[in-house]
Amino acid sequence: MDQTALKVEHLYFRYPGQDRMLFSDLNLEIAAGERFGLFGPNGAGKTTLISLMTGLLSYERGDIWLLGNTIKSKRKEVNKLFGFVPQTFSFYQELSPVANLEFFGAWSGLNKKEIKKRTNELMDIMSLQEVKNKPVEQFSEGMKRRVNLAIGIIHSPRILFLDEPTVGVDVQTRHGIIGYLKELNKNGTTLVYTSHQLSEAEGLCKKIAFINEGKIIACGDIDVLLADNKEKGLEELFLNLTGKDFRNQ
Questions:
Q1: Are 194 and 46 spatial neighbours (Cβ–Cβ below 8 Å)?
Q2: Strand 215-221 relative to strand 207-212: parallel, antiparallel, unpaired?
Q3: Would the pTM count as exceeding 0.85?
């Protein structure tokens, strides 16, 4: 893992109309090929940080680099480097999986031959061949999550951002999605993942960062962080670092 997949340097960000900075001089580095998790309480800044990393939000100062490219320049080329699987569904409900992948594949810069090949592969991988031409609005939550994931990876990105990719799904679907993400990682895709499913995260991530009130309060290998804090699991470590009180978020 010699190459850096993602680097956040001296990042400053606040939402319009707010006086307080959400991020002040935030720094983070993720190696290529890593399975990296971002965790924290609601309102800590996890989703905002991913939105900044993927260019959905603009930052005031600092910079974010993806595989050596700043996201502020050559956006078309940089967009091809990463995929994004958001918590909210990112497809057209009235269209079929095939139609959705045709649209998002073209938007990602693939030609018709590449789109057809990748769509067929992903329908097999996601076990959606039997329903590939049916409107997605008829699908179960788990099936929609699989369509969401397929859209995020149709262009075979080198970095994949995942925001709660298994929320609302059954055990079988969660197991299948996590297993496939591990396969993607074995083939070289860097994973940047956030979720409230900390038991799931322990099985997926190798390194993690905890964010609280816009600051990274811990970062490193899971085993090392657990040992250093004398905790048995991520849930206990999470509560130890961020507190057990209710949050008004």
A1: yes
A2: antiparallel
A3: yes
